[in-house]
Write a structure and sequence with these properties.
Layout: H1 5-20, E1 39-40, E2 48-59, E3 62-70, E4 74-76, E5 96-101, E6 104-105, E7 112-118, H2 121-134, E8 145-156, E9 171-180, E10 183-195, E11 199-202, E12 205-208, E13 210-214, E14 217-218, E15 225-226, E16 229-231, H3 237-241, E17 254-261, E18 269-270, H4 344-347, E19 355-360, E20 363-368, E21 372-374, E22 379-381, E23 386-398, E24 405-417, E25 422-427, H5 443-451, E26 454-455, H6 462-466, E27 469-478, E28 483-494, E29 500-510, E30 518-521, E31 524-531, E32 534-546, E33 552-565, E34 580-593, E35 598-608, H7 619-622, E36 631-635, E37 641-645, E38 649-651, E39 656-658, H8 661-664, E40 673-678, E41 681-686, E42 690-692, E43 699-701, H9 708-711, E44 722-728, E45 731-736, E46 740-742, E47 747-749, H10 759-765, E48 768-771, E49 774-777, E50 794-796, E51 803-805, E52 852-857, E53 860-867, E54 870-871, E55 877-881, E56 887-893, E57 898-903, E58 908-913, E59 920-923, E60 930-936, E61 941-946, E62 951-956, E63 963-966, E64 973-979, E65 984-989, E66 996-1001, E67 1008-1011, E68 1018-1024, E69 1029-1034, E70 1039-1043, ...
Parallel strand pairs: 23-29, 26-35
Antiparallel strand pairs: 1-7, 2-3, 3-4, 4-5, 5-13, 6-8, 7-8, 8-9, 9-10, 10-17, 11-12, 13-16, 14-15, 17-18, 19-20, 21-22, 23-24, 24-25, 25-35, 27-28, 27-33, 28-29, 30-32, 31-32, 31-34, 32-33, 34-35, 36-37, 38-39, 40-41, 42-43, 44-45, 46-47, 48-49, 50-51, 52-53, 52-76, 53-54, 53-55, 56-57, ...
Length: about 1150
Amino acid sequence: MFWRDQGWLLWATFLGFVASAHSIRRDEFFPFGQSAGDQVLEPENDRTQRLDLSAPLLFYDRSFDSIFINTNGFVATEEPPSESTYLGKMPPSFGMIAALHGDLDTSAGVGKVFFRQDSRADVLRRAAEHINRAFPYNDEVDPTHAVVVTWVDVAPHTPHTRGDGLEKKRNSFQLVLASLQKASYAILLYARDGVQFSSTLVQGSDVIMHGGFSKGLVPGFWFTSQGPYYRTTSDEEISVRELAEQTNSGQRGVWVYEIGTSPTFSDVSPGEVTDLPTEPPPFLAQTTEPSWPLYTGEQVKNDPEQIEIHSNQYQPLQPHDPEVVELDETEINVDVFSYNFGTCSNNRNKCSQFADCRDYSSGFCCHCRPGFYGNGIQCVAEGKPQRMNGKIHGRVFVGSSPYPVELGGVDLHSYVVVNDGRSYVAISDIPETLGPSLLPLSVLGGVIGWAFALEQPGYRNGFSVIGGEFTREAEVTFMPWNEKLIIRQEFKGTDELDHLVVKTTLEGKVPEMPLGSTVTMDPYAEIYQYGSNLITSSSTREYKVNMPDGSTETRTYQCRQTITFQSCQHGDSLRDVKPSQMLSVDQVFVLYDVNNKILRYAMSNKVGDVNGGEPEENPCFTGRHGCDNNAVCRPGQGSQFTCECAAGFLGNGRDCDDIDECRENPQICGYNAVCNNQPGTYRCECEDGFQFGSDSRTCVEVDRPVNHCEDGTHDCDTPERAQCSYTGSSSFICSCLPGYVGDGRNCQGLAEQGACGSEERDSLLGGTVFGPRGPRPSESHIPACDGNGEYEPLQCDRRTGSCWCVDRNGVEVRGTRSAPGRTPMCIHDDGGPPDVRPTPRPDVDPLPPGTHLLFAQSGRIEHVPLESYEMRKEGAKAVLHLPERVIIGVAYDCVEKVVYWTDITSPAISKASIQGGEPTTVIRTDLGSPEGITVDHIGRTIFWTDSMKDRIEVASLDGSRRRVIVDSDLINPRAIVADPVHGHLYWTDWNREAPKIETSYMDGSNRRVLVQNDLGLPNGLTYDFQSSLLCWADAGTHKMECMHPDRGDRTSVLEGIQYPFGITSYGRKIFYTDWKRNAVVAMDRHSGRESDEFQPAKQTKLYGITSAYSQCPPGRNYCSVNNGGCTHLCLATPNGRSCKCPNNPATAACVERPAEY
């Protein structure tokens, strides 16, 4: 039978449809029932049975040797209490893995619960298939142990009608816990028509059933607190029904979660494949049956429509007739991976640990739980005093002085007694020349008073509305001479101690006040106007200056401020915020401590009605309640109130004592750590000789410097061949001695390099060879060799004048021998004969399918195919020939299968399809030295660095709509990478005086330095979307390091590298190009060792390298659809997008919009 390629591909695609498009049936569960070796849970309304495990289960950050199977649709990590204490609650107070948790019944023959441990190959293989399909970009896993729990035909518990089993609805679902040595997974299967009810009666009311994972109560800020949890259903009935209709594993009704890892754990990770292919046509909708017999015990007869279960043998899917089925491409629309965004399942980790995530029709929002307040992203405990820490930078001119006072990072600290609105601010190291003149500027710390002001009924302070991440700019104008001071403050949220973090910059001029002056300020009020992502206020403040000579002056200044923030637009969190609120400030106290050079402010802050309203008499609203500073005041009727100690404190509310978590639970910080008690909380610090690992929690031993060269513990080649050079710390470099070549760990003499360096050649050079009759003059061709003992690609016969090309083994390339006096163009290329055509424009050789590495080398771009994260070196070849060009950076567009590169000779930025075609220059003007380049495959833009013009630019993929986004404080920008899903850019600057790695949003805003210490020459940079790790290679420190940009947990992953230039990541592997080794080197990030090396035929410097994925990474951003509603450039930010115009728009129709949520 003749199979055409297209028809065969379509047929294979439909075979995949059958496995994933339809809802899973009960006979497609993992085998269950007594014939599968199951135990049966005793019939009961609330029955629990312990199961001792032959291999431990990893759940969150703990390991369990036993679990508890319960009737009510869950497995517990400890024996659960009576169902009356947990029904209807998610999360519960104990560790729970809830498949579908409710008040269920298996008594009177209305259902069964089967369970067993299993390590048989068929079960483990099926579990591995589900897990690997759900996490397509992770390393494949092979579980070694499984627990299978099946709830079959269970009914809701209804005490008044027990026994009417034939009339009840039934649910059937299955939980498989699959474990390997360092990870455990939960696989949940919900059958078609297997979720027939979604609520059960709890204390007389219908309560929605729950699915999810809960660690239970854990030691925390007080005796115990609710630990982390993850809900797979919400409080809406539809979320339960969708369990059988949706997926996160690529198969409808099957859900996969990573629920525990060792030695570190961050959060429950859901499967990544949420999209489903189209249902197959009827003629392809064949069924496959399991190879094991199913549960054939006492059959419960329910509705007549239910399918009776039979035991069948597996039959491979066969087409009815072996003929080709061909369809037009337009008839099929298949999205293999999910690009859904804006749901809690994908964004739950963005919420505070004290918040719940809630889905809405247009997206998700985070909401602080009772007892906490904030915007859901940051939540702090009610009543607990709050602190703010930060640094102040800037330049301030004082009076008529022509020289500014420089502030190079002085400390700012603030403390707020929340229950009475009193705030205190201290700024240290303020010189005498500036301190007195800053006394009137209570506005410097006033924002902390607004953030935690005492709330009047119906009004909310700043933190409860916008949380702790926002930007504030205040313009202060002093009368009558119009001196101006600009205050910019970037609030970066709360740290691990719930302290607000702020960076402040001062620029401008203030009137001079002589040393010894004091200032008094009258109460004042400010009107705050609240809009979408913007808050504004303006006020005039009067203050009295008491001069050292006893005279007084009354002065004023005007203050206008704007506060920008990202709010959640999907829910109703801002609906109850009044559009106008008044901040009333009184009891203002300012002081400059000349001896200690400290500037101090104190004030009382209340937020309420702009019209003042009736004065509130309840002490909770006046602040005159007498509650402890660490307590929250709860108003009652009239003037009644109660005092309640804040979280982390214990007492009657009027006297609250800090709970010493370190004493209550001495092991709270784990091994090799010291617990330091803090007010309301605690802090873990590593013992001497230890430091926090990558999870920022576990203390790991610090590597003490070892001179491996001196100790003889290096892995360089023998001293006769190689030299070990100590480079500090525990690093060393291996280099081959003269006469040897290699990477220093494996060195070969030139005589060992093959025929070109052999004794035969040496004898030919000597002029004689030995034949049967003794020595005679040589008439053989003497091969030409390079300095490394390799064949030169061009060989010529001195006797005949003819020339030809040879491969790396010295074998002549057919068709290249020329006539005497003519020379062919020869390039080493193991992939086939070199291109010997005169080509005015270079060509592109198409790549085969799969994931590849693309790297730049002089005038060409080469590729190495990848197979299971390993380089398939025999398939390497040049795909793009660009004579007389120096290509520096390469980037890949996974959507259109196009490679982009920077060329410093023209200079230019160009592109070409790797599926074949001619290169095209997209940008050729106003370039200096373009080096790093990256593609936003979602927003359809390119970003590049220019080390001569010292800037970073963005443009559309065709080179239009070009815009400079960063052009200050850059000296030698080189590598650049994008994280379009989260809206971040990262780049390196190898300025030898002050090298650094920086980040910003993709529109260039919110720029900050990530790394600036212990850097030498950071050449290469890569971002791994799977692990969220940013890694870089440094040719100065000879290290490769990684960090999570949002954590700052910098870790060295490889030391002793020689001269890295480009770097890219793929799964657990990192690949980098090395100038010293002229090679692409692979290293395993988990083991911290190099695993392979590829040296191309042409031994010259290798530059940029990138991963060409066979399919685009999953994820979307706000630019994914309709260009984000932007007229020109749509540039992603973490919570939205910015609409930007080109620097030189061609039309006047461009509209700019700031970043929006």
